[in-house]
Structure prediction request, 409 residues.
Amino acid sequence: MNYFGLGLRNVWRNRRRSIVTLLAVAFGFASIAIFAGYVHNVYDGLMRQAIQGELLGHLTINKRGLETMGRIKPEKYLFSKDDIARIEGIIKTDPHVRLITPRLALSGIISNGRASTIFVAEGVVPADVTAIKGDFQRRMAGDLDSKNPIGIAIGDGLAEILGLKKGDTAAMLVSTLTGQSNALDVEIADIFDTGNPQTRDKFVYMPISLAQSLYDVDGQADRLVVLLDETSETNAVRDVLAPKLAAAGFDVEIRTWDDISVFYRSVKGLFTMIFAFIFGIVIIVVMMSIVNAMSMTVVERTREIGALRAMGLRRGSVVRLFTTEAAVLVGLGCAIGLGLTLLVRLGVNHSGIQYVPPNSSNRVRLLVDVDAGKMLLAFAVICVLGAVSALLPARRAARQPIIDSLGHV
Prediction:
């Protein structure tokens, strides 16, 4: 028996009901797919923002305890020149490593000569910053010139507080490792938007040589940032490097970019919960539509079921026939939903709509990706529920005595 052909034919026996059910399945599938595509784009954007925009790279290596005790006894948590050279030698053996760059964090007071305010700075290698940013378009770290050893990049909020502009000079005051005060004159080389309202009024990027001079250390750094060729290799490379560094006598922590980026983790957790909530609601609505359609179909065709059973069709074959019909209904609905998804995605991606995300001061485009994994999950769940929706009423009708089925009104 050609179950598929019969199922396809039976779907159109009641066109109005089938069309309504098809539209319910299609819009349900499209809603899930479009939102999943938007979430996928948000995750990808946040990932690139953390790795390239915030200059976190893929891996950060520091001495164990830096985050908790580094401010109390910073001298114990700095890598020496020799430590940096040895660690780089170990890391470079991994084929996925593209770049290793030292970092030095410090804080202090910056003044324009009349007013002062606090700052939090990151000492970086200017050429390495360019390599990490790559093709990332949003300027979240400022531009430094390796030929200008006293040039710094400051957040636009900080520039506004002190009335500074490019080319102006300022004074920076920092406490050294020994607790003495050290001050240097610096030049404002760039003003940038950090993308975060909480850091715009205090964040500074400077050449690491300048940070070392302010901190009064010779070639030392508190962290090493590692950039890989593939983000997907992050955890694998960490697992390979950790035992190698431990064997070399380094008691270090290796943190991935998503371990450090609190904002990424919080946003991902929020969107995962929202997606699960929307997914559950849409699936319930779709399932109820299929249950209603198949239940009415089975009731209307009870005499037909009795006739088929009288001609020798087994109960299992009757159930299979209606299950196939439901599968055809769901398959066609998901196919229409896929078409709707692609059309909506095309329209949204070419509309140029922009918005300002939470905890950000930069406008971003509203884009929708194709999340094949979530789409396959939605298709599988709808298919299973569609089959179950047809299975229960079909089994009940198939078990009814033939005489009763033939006499059903």
Summary: The chain has two domains: 3-50+264-406, 55-260. The first strand starts at residue 59 and ends at 63. The chain has 14 helices and eleven strands. The two ends are 27 Å apart (CA to CA).
